[in-house]
Structures are given as C-alpha cells and as structure tokens.
Amino acid sequence: MNWKQIAVPIAALVIFGIFWELLVWVNGWPNYKMASPSDLWPSFWKFRWLFLEYGWDTLWRTVAGLVLAVVLGVFLGMIMGLSRIMRDALYPLLVGFNAIPKATVVPIIALLFVGQHDMNTILIAFLISFFPIAVSVSIGLSTLEPEYRDILASLGASRFTIFWKIALPKTLPEFFGALKVAVTLAFIGTNLMEIVEPHGRGLGHLFDSGKISADYPLMFAVLIALALMGILLYYVVVAIEKVFAGWAERAPT
To answer: With contact defined as beta carbons under 8 Å apart, do 38 and 97 qualify?
Structure first.
C-alpha cells in the first residue's frame, strides 16, 4: 500500500467534514436540527466510555454475523454454482427472501428468541448480508469456461481438483467484491436489531437513547462512529483480498 492509498481516503473524509460544517453554518441550522462536525467531538468525549463499550458490542456481533454469512453464503453459492438444478431451485427462494424488508423480519426474530439478544443480533446481521456472497460465488462457479474442465479432465484431473485449482480461485474476485458489500449490510442488520429490540447494548441502543433525550449531536456522533467502524472493517477485507486475490487487481493508473 503506497502513500496515495492512505492519503486520498483521508483527504476525502476531511473535505466531506469541511463541506458538512459549511453547509450547517451557511443555513444557520441549530444542532437540534442538523449537528455539525464541530458538535460531535464534545459528544464523543462526554460519552467516550459508552462509545467504547457499546461500539465493541456492535462490532463483535456484526463480525460474528458476517462470518456466519460467509460460511453459509459460500456453501450455498457452491451448491448453486456446481448444480444447475439446485441453482434453478434455490435462486428464486433467495431472491424472494432478500426482497423482504429486513425491518419487518427483526420483530419476528425478536419474538421467536425472546431474551436471546446476542443471537438475535447476530442472526439478523447474517440474514441481511449472506445473499450477495451466495450469488457472487454461484455466478463465479457457473461461468467457469467448459474448456478448462474438458482439458483438465482429459489430463486425468478429478472434479475436486478442477474445483480446487481452477473454479475456486476464479471466484475470489467476485467473492471479495460481494464481501465488501456484505460488510455494510451486516452493520445495518446489527443496528436494526439494537434499535427495534432495545436491550441496553450496542451503538443502536446509544442512538435510541440520544433520540429519546433529543440529544442530536449524540445521535450524529453514533452515526459517524458506525461509519468509521464500517470503513475499518471494509479495509480489513481489502487487506485480506490483497493476500488471497491480489493477482486480480489491475495496475493503478
């Protein structure tokens, strides 16, 4: 990673913050209507221990749901990618389930598993993020050129060898592309559950507390904290991608 890959995102965030501050200042909005970046640091500092505690609650449950989504998503993607019959059978079910607004699923999950707050939160993070992973793996495997299979099969390679040496590596770029999307979706699922099913934990609960007390700088501070955590997890995925699929990256221009 060169200095441009670090400096450019930081510069973009700084420019965004300046634009946000100027927008609030020019319109003369009070902080109970639109908090500005200068209003956020006092809230971060005032509730710093809650941000650390609740931020950890949100982060580990989001990561747990994401890991579960990767495991099941890759498994379903392999089934659909290697079998046309299973793809035709499962794809409509996955699309139909993904079309259901997850905000309507959250109360159902909360009622099914009353009191199981961690499991509920991890489950909704999983449900909202596994679809793009399954689809990307399925597409990557199903579009493998038949010439590769025929040549390797004629050389005596088994189906497992063809899958492990050719098909699986070919899906890695699509998989990591979908995983970057799934990271943000997992955070959405986690916070939906934390807000809809309040149980005193997570940044969603802190956001709800700010809403109840009309503390708008705190609410915006929670949103920024969630955004920063999402960016951090995104770059963790980017780093892993460079290790396992760096060969697919185009030369920078």
So the answer is: no
Residue entry with tokens 């590769």:
148
* Cα 42 off chain centre by: 28
User: How big is the chain, counted in residues?
Assistant: 253
| Per-residue pLDDT reduced to its tens digit, 57-84 | 999 999 999 999 999 988 888 888 777 8
**In this structure, what token pair is assigned to residue 227?**
């955004």
Distance (Å, rounded) from C-alpha 253 to C-alpha 41?
A: 37
Nearest to 173 by CA among 242, 101, 86: 242
Q: Where are the alpha helices (DSSP H) in 28-116?
A: 37-46, 48-82, 84-99, 102-112
Q: Say if residue 45 is exposed, middle or buried (CB neighbours under 10 Å; 0-12, 13-18, 19+).
A: exposed
Rounded Cα distance, 35 and 115, in Å: 35
Q: How far apart are CA 218 and CA 43, in angstroms?
A: 5
Would the pTM count as exceeding 0.70?
yes
Q: Which amino acid is at 40?
A: L
For residues 132 and 183, the answer to whether their CB atoms sit within 8 Å is no
